Amino acid sequence: MHRGNDVKHILVRSGKSPFHVASPTEFLQQDLIGTNTGNLLFSDSAHKMLSLPDTEVTSNGIRTDPSARRAAEINERYDVFVVPLANAFRPGFHASLDRLSTLIEQLTIPVVVFGVGAQAPDDYDTEWLGPMEASVKRFAAAVLERSASIGVRGELTARYLNDLGFQDVDIIGCPSMFLYGATFPDIRAADLTADSRIAVNLSPDAIPVGDISGIARHAWERYPHLTYYAQHTDDAELLLWGDTTPESGVEDPFPRHLSHPLLRENKVRMPLDPATWIEGTARDTTSPTG
Predict the structure, then answer these.
(1) What whole-number distance in Å separates Cα of residue 111 and Cα of residue 97?
(2) Where in this chain does the record put each Polysaccharide pyruvyl transferase domain (predicted)?
(3) Concatenated DSSP letters for the chain?
(4) Same domain for 37 and 153?
(5) Labelling 6: which of 37, 67, 91, 227 has CA 20 to 30 A away?
């Protein structure tokens, strides 16, 4: 453990520090968002909560190095390892969860987990997580050997861990809820008209659920001053490097090609930081144009 002064040295699993302004190329090449900018929302909140006069907070990056060398370095340099997470209990995160467990099992410092969640279908059935049950147990056991409890997103995850035999669980929600401290910002009520500015977020993962593109198109037709805030790495690559769809005539109802009207009319934004994302939506929504 790092010793020698009264400053607590905290290592946080995050794509980057909120104080590091990355270029678009760095943003993409290093995948600082773990494919989705939403990951920066809760990691930035964790950085903010932990940044005090007597702490020094360092980003560990989004990728986990589980080597013995890295574990020894963390044990030597830091006082605590903080791990903000989202829906980490899901098949798509299985390998990443195992790497985290391998690293944590080698640590001799406290480990704190913020807001981990179990992903489940609409019926909240966690049976589909059966193939990774052993990995979840391994992760929870490793954390609880180094922490008093695990902070989870909601009742579903708490119940899931309880059923696996882990009772030291606290429901804390998503860390991004505490970006502004213990209270939420005031919500501005507005009478929406055709002159109102509207911000929308769309996920291609929602396409199988229903007519997401149609809903977005309806909103755009009703509120022509709409701005689409994209979140995925694919969106950033499209905005930075473009594609050939305008020339080839490819059409897609979802805004993921330059041929889509939202992109042709410059109505798509891809924030590289939560600060600019929040600032942009505050500026671009619910106030009359002109």
Answers:
(1) 15
(2) 36-202
(3) ---SSS-EEEEE--SS-TT----HHHHHHTTTTTTBTHHHHHHHHHHHHH--TTEEEEE--SS----HHHHHHHHHH-SEEEEE-SS-BSGGGHHHHHHHHHHHTT--S-EEEE-B-B---TT--GGGGGGGHHHHHHHHHHHHTSSS-EEESSHHHHHHHHHTT---EEE---GGGGTTTTSPPPPPP----TT---EE---GGGGGGS-HHHHHHHHHHH-TT-EEE--BHHHHHHHHH--SHHHHT---SSS-STTSHHHHTT-EE--SSHHHHHHHHHHHSSS---
(4) yes
(5) 67
What does the alpha-carbon distance between residue 26 and residue 32 come to, in Å, rounded to a whole number? Answer: 8
Q: Which pLDDT tens digit goes with each residue over 120-146?
A: 988 899 999 999 999 999 999 999 999
Does 26 share its domain with 159? yes
- The string of pLDDT tens digits covering residues 251-267 is 788 888 888 889 999 99
CA 17 to chain CA centroid, nearest Å: 14
Question: What's the 3-state SS for 166-235?
Answer: CCCEEECCCHHHHCCCCCCCCCCCCCCCCCCCCEECCCHHHHHHCCHHHHHHHHHHHCCCCEEECCEHHH
pLDDT for the residue numbered 40: 92
Residues 20 and 158 in one domain: yes
| Whether 96 and 222 share a structural domain | no
Which pLDDT value is given to residue 191?
Answer: 84
Domain membership of residue 76 (yes or no) is: yes
In this structure, the answer to whether residues 46 and 171 fall within a common structural domain is yes
